[in-house]
């Protein structure tokens, strides 16, 4: 492939979005589109720049990210631990699994009214909702991953003298890792979704608060800016988890080709 | 301690025996039975395999070959009777017994060297590297298992089995999935390491030609009993050329299966 064709291949996918942006810009500036319906792309850029300069955008993004990460650590960690325990000990599975499966079917956003009653509209409410949201995908995938580890490899490990701890660390956990990382990616998606909803309903800071506040004053450019920031943060989390998968699953040929093609 | 009866006295071929003596362990079965529910798979096995002997076990599928192997490895316990290794009755997994599986069962997430040194005993890296050199794969130590061919995977598995110098090596049809040329290579390699390390080898196979090519002695397992106990009294050097006696032995084994 020559450099010219490589360049063309790189550019072609961008043509349509750029054209749409151009049309949008012209339509907004010519007055065909009311700024209340859809502000011009340039207005959003200006909003981005001013909020960046006065520090309000980094402030809100920072708070949102903190809630997201805290919720992910608590809920994801709990789901991971439960998955490990239930995957390893049949007794734990008997006691816990069916209860967890029942709870899993409750849409976690449906408990928002209860959460507000329990925690008010403080930080705990948001972190709690995110934690509940990410717990189940982490739990299910970790559990499933541990259960689907090749029995033959476990048997080999036993014959070759691995004790329970070595067997767990060197055979079972690495074997479950692909499924665990799939769970993490699901969890990251749910993490942002939950946070958006929680911050829009009750918050005094964060990106969700920023957009809801802007809506009160009909600042559509700020609302769109918030949406774009959410999208970028989601994409960032996805890139991070893909990087982690590539690092951790270097040994997996199907994974290799999958990533190279993606 | 009861002295186990010898079911058959193998005639040792002195010039053909393992060169390193004393590392292999004697294996004895005393009235060993194994049943799964009401179904008896092994129905009274009395057998002595002397230290360092190479024994092949042939038989139809469902004849108890794999059950026998799992009992020796300690993956299952016998329903009745006792299995003695080096004179003492054993139960549970044995550190001096290693098993080569049908599929190589390498850990895909560990590189070749780490697979060979799976137990991580002190000084495992040097040992593992030496064993890899012995099976001709020294330069693949840093590779992931998925880049290896089927034959190479089995050679890595062989190095892994030998790294702890087992007294008994069990081979559960390890060459069944390989092509004829690779299989012949593996036969030569196995014979070489058996001579060098001196372990007692027990090969399970459905391939009668493979059994008489490799073993000192062939056991035919039928209906949970040893139906035939045949000594392969042909020097290994003469086996590759297809001696007439070899064909006769093969016929005899096939008719017994």
UniProtKB/TrEMBL annotation, chain A:
CDD domains: TM_PBP2
InterPro entries: MetI-like, MetI-like_sf
Top-level taxon: Bacteria
Main location as per UniProt: membrane
SUPFAM superfamilies with a match to the protein in the record: MetI-like
Gene Ontology CC annotation, any one: plasma membrane
Chain ranges of the ABC transmembrane type-1 domain: 57-241
Cellular compartment(s): Cell membrane
This protein's UniProt keywords: Cell membrane, Membrane, Transmembrane, Transmembrane helix, Transport
Signal peptide (residue range): none
TM stretches of this protein: 68-91, 103-121, 127-146, 167-184, 190-210, 222-244
Bilayer topology: Multi-pass membrane protein
Database matches in Pfam families: BPD_transp_1
GO term, biological process aspect, one: alkanesulfonate transmembrane transport
Role this protein plays: Probably part of an ABC transporter complex. Probably responsible for the translocation of the substrate across the membrane.
Family, per entry: Belongs to the binding-protein-dependent transport system permease family.
NCBIfam families according to UniProt: PRK11365.1
Protein name in UniProt: Sulfonate transport system permease protein
Gene source species: Nitrospirillum amazonense
Automatic annotation (TrEMBL), chain B:
An annotated Gene Ontology molecular function: ATP binding
Domain ABC transporter: 27-248
Keyword Nucleus: no
InterPro entries per UniProt: AAA+_ATPase, ABC_transporter-like_ATP-bd, ABC_transporter-like_CS, ABC_transporter_ATP-bind, P-loop_NTPase
Keywords from the named record: ATP-binding, Cell membrane, Membrane, Nucleotide-binding, Translocase, Transport
Family matches, as PANTHER family: ALIPHATIC SULFONATES IMPORT ATP-BINDING PROTEIN SSUB, TAURINE IMPORT ATP-BINDING PROTEIN-RELATED
Family classification: Belongs to the ABC transporter superfamily.
This protein's name: Sulfonate transport system ATP-binding protein
Classification of source organism: Bacteria, Pseudomonadati, Pseudomonadota, Alphaproteobacteria, Rhodospirillales
């Amino acid at each position: 492939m020559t450099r010219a064709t490589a360049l063309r291949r790189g550019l072609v996918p961008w043509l349509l979005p750029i054209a749409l942006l151009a049309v949008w810009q012209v339509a907004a500036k010519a007055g065909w589109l009311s700024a209340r319906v859809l502000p011009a792309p340039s207005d959003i850029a200006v909003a981005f720049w001013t909020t960046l300069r006065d520090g309000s955008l980094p402030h809100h993004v920072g708070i949102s990210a903190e809630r997201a990460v805290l919720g992910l650590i608590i809920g994801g960690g709990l789901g991971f631990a439960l998955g490990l325990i239930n995957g390893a000990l049949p007794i734990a599975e008997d006691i816990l699994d069916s209860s967890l499966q029942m709870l899993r079917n409750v849409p976690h956003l449906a408990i928002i009214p209860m959460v507000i009653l329990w925690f008010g509209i403080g930080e705990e409410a948001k972190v709690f909702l995110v934690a509940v949201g990410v717990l189940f995908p982490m739990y299910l995938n970790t559990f499933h991953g541990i259960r689907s580890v090749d029995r033959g490899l476990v048997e080999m490990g036993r014959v070759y003298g691995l004790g329970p701890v070595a067997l767990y660390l060197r055979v079972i956990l690495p074997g479950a890792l692909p499924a665990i990382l799939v769970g993490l990616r699901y969890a990251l998606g749910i993490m942002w979704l939950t946070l958006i909803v929680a911050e829009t309903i009750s918050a005094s800071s964060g990106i969700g608060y920023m957009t809801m506040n802007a809506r009160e004053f009909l600042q559509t450019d700020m609302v769109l800016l918030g949406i774009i920031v959410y999208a970028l943060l989601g994409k960032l989390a996805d890139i991070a988890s893909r990087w982690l998968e590539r690092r951790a699953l270097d040994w997996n040929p199907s994974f290799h080709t999958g990533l190279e093609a993606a | 301690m009861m002295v186990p009866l010898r079911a058959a006295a193998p005639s040792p071929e002195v010039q053909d025996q393992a060169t390193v003596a004393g590392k292999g362990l004697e294996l004895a079965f005393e009235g060993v039975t194994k049943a799964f529910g009401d179904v008896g798979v092994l129905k009274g096995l009395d057998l002595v395999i002397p230290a360092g002997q190479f024994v092949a076990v042939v038989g139809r599928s469902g004849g108890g070959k794999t059950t026998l192997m799992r009992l020796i490895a300690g993956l299952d316990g016998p329903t009745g009777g006792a299995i003695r290794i080096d004179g003492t009755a054993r139960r549970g997994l044995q550190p001096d017994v290693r098993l080569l599986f049908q599929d190589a069962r390498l850990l895909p997430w560990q590189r070749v060297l780490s697979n060979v040194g799976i137990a991580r005993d002190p000084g495992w890296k040097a040992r593992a590297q030496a064993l890899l050199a012995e099976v001709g794969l020294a330069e693949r130590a840093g590779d992931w298992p998925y880049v290896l061919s089927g034959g190479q995977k089995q050679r890595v598995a062989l190095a892994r089995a030998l790294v702890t110098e087992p007294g008994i090596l069990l081979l559960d049809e390890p060459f069944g999935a390989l092509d004829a040329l690779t299989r012949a290579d593996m036969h030569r390699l196995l014979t070489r390491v058996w001579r060098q390390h001196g372990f007692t080898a027990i090969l399970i196979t459905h391939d009668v030609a493979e059994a008489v090519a490799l073993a000192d002695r062939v056991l035919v397992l039928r209906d949970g009993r040893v139906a035939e106990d045949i000594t392969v009294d042909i020097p290994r050097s003469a086996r590759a050329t297809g001696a007439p006696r070899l064909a006769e032995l093969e016929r005899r084994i096939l008719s017994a299966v």
